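Internal ticket - ligand job 928, adenosine-5'-triphosphate:
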Amino acid sequence: MGTEQEVSALSLESVVEDVLHQQEIRLSDRGLASRKAEEASSRRYEAARWLRKTVGVVGGKDLPAEPSEEEFRLGLRSGIILCNVLNRVQPGAVPKVVEGPSDSAAVPDGAALSVFQYFENVRNFLVAVEEMGLPTFEASDLEMGGKSARIVNSVLALKAYSDWKDGGGSGSWKLGGNSKPVTSGKHFVRRSSEQLFMNSYSRATSTSEQTSHEDPSHDLSQAAASGSFHMLIRQILSEKKQEDIPIILESIISKAMEEFECRFASQNVSRMKAEPEDSTLCSSKPLLEDSTLWCSSKPLLEDSTLCSSKPLLEDSTCSSKPLLETSSYEDFKKEEETEEIAPESSLEELKSEEEMEDKAATSSSEDLKEEEEKKEKEENFLKIMATAKILNKDLEEKVAQNKKLTGQILKHESFVKRQEKDIQELKQTLSTTKEQMLLLQVKYREDFGTIGKQMYGLAHAASGYQKVLEENRKLYNQVQDLKGNIRVYCRVRPFLPGQPNSVNSVGHLDDGSITILTPSKNGKDAKKSFTFNRVFSPSATQAEVFSDTQPLVRSVLDGYNVCIFAYGQTGSGKTHTMSGPKEITEEGMGVNYRALNDLFSISKQRKDSISYDIRVQMIEIYNEQVRDLLSTDGSIKKLEIRNNSSNGINVPEANLVPVSTTSDVIHLMNLGQRNRAVSATAMNDRSSRSHSCLTVHIQGKDLTSGTVLRGCMHLVDLAGSERVDKSEVVGDRLKEAVHINKSLSALGDVISSLAQKSQHVPYRNSKLTQLLQDSLGGQAKTLMFVHISPEPHATVETISTLKFAERVSSIELGAAKVNKDTSEVKELKEQIASLKEALARKDAEEDIHSQSSSPDRSGLKSGGSSCSNLSWQGTADEDVEGIHTPQRSTPTAATNPSKKASNGVSPMTNRPRSTGSQDGRRRNVGGK
Ligand SMILES: Nc1ncnc2c1ncn2[C@@H]1O[C@H](COP(=O)(O)OP(=O)(O)OP(=O)(O)O)[C@@H](O)[C@H]1O
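stdout (structure tokens):
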């Protein structure tokens, strides 16, 4: 509200100020102001000189002879000079003059007590002067600058009165030359002097508390007098309601306008009525003219409504007080008449009147000017009216705007109400939604519970499915085991660095089959496909290769015999698969290392239930000689292979080294590699010139039952078959190649026999077949890695190799059996052994006894020996098929002439051996 009030007040004030300012500018344009100033100065000097002359120095301070307006005002401010001079003129007029300090400068102007006392003086002076019927002024005129004119007038009137009195006081005294009897009482209708003073005083000390807000026009007059129009408007509006402001402002303006119009009308009437007596009225009342002029130059601020602040104006011009004061032209006329019927004037007075008339005549031109000025003032007034109308219009517009704003506020209010209603509805919806959410949560929880149960069932079913799958796999393996098929994995070597690799003999390859291309052939001969248990591409890693081998390796710990052997053409990657590259890295480690590491970790896992003893042998068959690769004394001993060993060790003379860590294995492998016969050939710069065999012997004792499990694993890296024309070997290398090829050929024969389920299997045709007899024809689990090279020039050997592998994979060995000795079997074995020993001892004793009693019996004995030998020979015969050829040869040659034929020459003789071999195998199984 404050801002709007201020704006309204300011706009109103600015309009008024603007008009006043324009008026002043016009006045100054005509030099009126300067003229008035000159006139005022001369009158002031006159008054000052008279005062000085009459009272001299009063209150310790002299009044200058020609004081400035300020000096004049300040000089009389204490009222002492005024009271003194009045007492001189009219002794006793002011009974008590309050004297101030001798030096008024010593007391600050603002000292409250002094000021109050001074007001007392001034008040007394003004009352007295009023009583004398002389012109007065207002106490506040002494306080404010620019207000000395009325003081001067009053002083000069007193002077005139004094002069009149000094002149004898005859006749009636008249201000300005017109006789005016002091004793005749009041010559002008006026309010009481007390009221006059109080009005003056109240304005001088007016505060906001003293201002009535009930009547805006009154406030207007008050404020205009105090010069704080802006403050007033603000004050009026401060306590009003927003919607009342335009109405109040409108009321102020309309009152102002009414006042203007009234005044304007009054002025016109006044002028019209004054015109016939213009010469007398105007010429005889210079003071009145001044006042009129002053009054009309301040139409708004100091108009008739503000008359209370202009006693002089009230006194002199009724026309300026049409509303509040009762003075009017009629009154004025009456007074004039009263004056006219006053006591007769003296001759001098008449003279003076004549002079005045003359003066009036001479000043007629000035009157004309005055008339023009008045007209101009009227025009100005009309302009002010127009401005006021514009202001009114502005106000009306503002009222309209206010109404519009009020409408908008109402709209907003209804909008806010709607919003509140919406919010309530939303809150309702929210609470409903919350409830629904809670219900949903409960339902979801239930659903989740149900889903959880179902999931659990599914998981159970899934695990069951996994179990079934596992079972299937087991069953498949069991079928494989029962059939005793030799597993065959095929691995294709990648092209070696620097080799031309644009043409590849391997056409197609997947997990279980491989197709070899023969570009030289056409038609269906150009492609040959083979199927194996597993086919590894050239990119297969060592780890991938081993992962498929791992289950087989682990079965050693369960008491099975396992044989893994690498077969292939020279340079096809056999050594790489079994041992790894020349520089062994963790990723490059071959099956040998990985298998042993795996055995170690499993045995550690089972250490609480089974105690394992792991030992290794490493031998090679070089030029048909068995050599110990773990020999540390540098001597290469020729070793024998025995297949009837009860402890499963076929080469008992070879070093059997216990191992328990990977580093042990690495150490042994390095030793074996160093001892192995390796040479560079045209096909392979590090060609193995021997078959090497790493044999792992494991014995596990069940810590609970005492059952002993024995497993044996042969990890064989065969020497590569080579076409000597291609390998370009001569001398020792050629001899090696011949032996290698011969042993591989013997292996091929054994495989063929086994594949054809021949009754005779020629194991003893080579050391290699003798060594692998248990694995190829026994209860072992056997895996062959068949290696091929991708080079096209090796295609013939590749196809031949793969055909051989196919034959191997068709071999059915029968179910592998666990080498498990229960304690009862052990006992029985021991009993058999002791009985055999006892029988042998008895036989020996009997032999000695019969030889000593009868020489003929020696031949019988020999025959008996032969039987017994037969009996032994049966075992020996097994040895013939197996290992103990030297032991076997002597008794066989001596006791069984057909033995020679049994060396694979005659199928007839071969059959019982073969059966014996099969029986031996069975016995061996029984023995185990
Ligand atoms: N899978 C393979 N990845 C990378 N290189 C291989 C792979 N197989 C073999 N080689 C490399 O081929 C070369 C011949 O391999 P390796 O010596 O193992 O053949 P081999 O069949 O043992 O030969 P030989 O019968 O003459 O002893 C070696 O340099 C070997 O590192």
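Auto-summary: The pocket of adenosine-5'-triphosphate is lined by residues 493-494, 496, 568, 570-576, 581, 684, 686-688, 719-720, 787 (CB under 6 Å). Confidence is low (pLDDT under 50) at residues 102-113, 176-228, 275-345, 854-928.
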